[in-house]
Write a structure and sequence with these properties.
Blueprint lengths: L1 H8 L26 H11 L2 E7 L4 H11 L2 H10 E7 L8 H5 L1 H11 L6 E5 L5 E6 L4 H11 L13 H9 L8 H10 L3 H15 L4 H4 L2 H8 L8 H8 L1 H8 L4 H22 L29 H9 L4 H18 L3 H14 L9 H18 L3 H17 L6 H13 L3 H14 L6 H12 L12
Keywords: Redox-active center
Pfam families: Thioredoxin_2
InterPro entries: Thioredoxin-like_fold (IPR012336), Thioredoxin-like_sf (IPR036249), Thioredoxin_CS (IPR017937)
Length: about 475
């Protein structure tokens, strides 16, 4: 049960393990072993449309689409009837199989032809191989099916938003700069991987906006553009978010928007190298992908501590006290997670979200909610601290409310287990019965059944590594 549960729900945004299912008993049936040209030939012969799921191995929303949308029966029925569907891995890793490698050249073509620079990107082609529609980001079931329907509308023509790039670039080279289109040009240049021009355009843009008054500088378009760029903590871009964070949050109508951008930059530039240094020689990897399973014994992978005072001193020299302490919490969550000290990572994650509540209204809320679920389940498995266990209950209630459209048995299972371990047996049984009813017999129902029977008998849940 544990391995399957974490495979389905382990989708924290920074995680980079490739856990995408290529085919399953339900949902979309993916075309395997064919090149792009072979897929086009097959589509023409069968008079079917083509759907390309452009993903990366590190993309959280991509994993959400796999786990919540692509395996949906309604989605599968619609897309299998009308489309040849292909997963296209857009990044390269050391673990790429031969089929992924055979698509490397096609991937380069797709990036340049369709300016693919956000993930997931969905590309819909006609049976003749003509692009009909393109979209990005996590979609719920209804919206995703609507994308496919839109692509199939009779007479559908794709209005390429990148068609102006070559014209604007020619003007730019002549010294005629369309300053309001520079963010657009940067995105196109990034998709083309012309990094020298990319850096040049960003500098021109920053030189321009720094001369503007705040009300013209801090527009939603500019802010979204800046947030999409890699930031270092000494840059002008970083200072926009650090110094004028409240103003930016107001413009975006999202409290904590600037904080999230700041913290990502600090994690990449300061915290990650610090953790690597502290873990040197331990054999514990502090970069790259996570394991998708939890140690069955629950033992930690090395019990040494990082020098947290050193990290806090490093951060307070550059940032205010609140920022420093917030990022030390994030560092502790990362450290203990990678050392498989699940009780500690769950504890500090709860401290962090209580002190600095995440924004659950954004597009990536599904990733945030799944992260909460995973930590809550770790607390059930590995913690005996009743305050921690009870602390996750209101958060899991929020997860269930916001994730209600997916009716996910795994989420309900987490909530039921927390209720039971905190002594709320009657409520736990009611919720576990809901989980059992949702899971088909041929998947993981037996595991849920075992826990339900243990609850009814008043027994310790055998799946928990520690109890009381």
């Amino acid at each position: 049960m544990l391995n399957i549960k974490h495979l389905l729900l382990f989708v924290i945004l920074c995680f980079s393990i490739k856990i995408r299912a290529q085919n399953s008993e339900k949902g979309i049936k993916w075309i395997l072993e064919l090149s792009l040209e072979q897929v086009k030939a097959k589509a023409l012969k069968e008079n079917k449309y083509i759907f390309l799921d452009c993903f990366t191995t590190w993309c959280g929303p991509c994993k959400q689409m796999d786990n919540l949308i692509y395996n949906n029966d309604s989605v599968g029925s619609f897309f299998n009837d009308h489309f040849l569907s292909v997963k296209v891995q857009m990044d390269k890793t050391d673990n790429d199989n031969e089929q992924v490698k055979r698509w490397y050249e096609d991937v380069d073509t797709l990036k340049k032809k369709y300016y693919v620079d956000m993930y997931p990107t969905y590309i819909f082609l006609s049976p003749q191989g003509i692009v009909l529609h393109k979209d990005v980001g996590f979609k719920n079931t209804q919206n995703f099916i609507s994308l496919g329907s839109l692509a199939m509308q009779p007479g559908r023509k794709y209005d390429d938003p990148n068609k102006d790039y070559e014209i604007l670039l020619a003007r730019y080279k002549q010294g005629d700069i369309a300053y309001d289109r520079l963010p657009y040009m940067v995105r196109c240049t990034d998709a083309n991987r012309d990094m020298d021009l990319w850096r040049q355009l960003i500098k021109v843009h920053l030189d321009y906006v720094c001369k503007l008054p705040p009300n013209l500088r801090y527009t939603q378009e500019n802010i979204k553009f800046w947030a999409s760029l890699p930031l270092n903590t000494g840059s002008r871009l970083f200072n926009f978010f650090y110094v004028d964070g409240n103003l930016i949050d107001n413009v975006m109508a999202r409290k904590g928007f600037s904080r999230n951008v700041i913290d990502i930059a600090i994690m990449n530039e300061i915290i990650r190298p610090f953790l690597v240094e502290q873990a040197a020689g331990s054999g514990v990897t502090m970069t790259g992908g996570y394991l998708t399973t939890v140690s069955p014994t629950g033992k930690t992978a090395k019990l040494q501590e990082a020098d947290w005072r050193k990290l806090e001193n490093m951060l307070t020299k550059k940032f205010n006290t609140d920022c420093a302490r917030r990022n030390v919490l994030a560092a502790k969550v990362e450290w203990y997670e990678r050392h498989e000290n699940k009780a500690a990572s769950a504890r500090y994650f709860l401290f962090m979200i209580n002190k600095y509540p995440p924004d659950l209204t954004v597009d990536l809320k599904s990733t945030v909610l799944s992260a909460i679920n995973n930590r809550a389940y770790d607390a059930f498995l590995f913690s005996t601290d009743k305050k921690i266990l009870e602390g996750y209950l209101p958060w899991m209630k929020k997860v269930l409310v916001i994730f209600a459209e997916y009716i996910d048995a795994g989420l309900i299972d987490t909530y039921a287990c927390l209720l039971y371990k905190t002594g709320r047996s009657e409520d736990a049984i009611k919720w576990m019965e809901k989980a059992v009813a949702l899971v088909p017999v041929h998947t993981v129902k037996n595991s849920f059944d075992v826990k339900l029977e243990e609850m009814k008998r008043g027994k310790r849940l055998s799946e928990a590594v520690v109890w009381k």
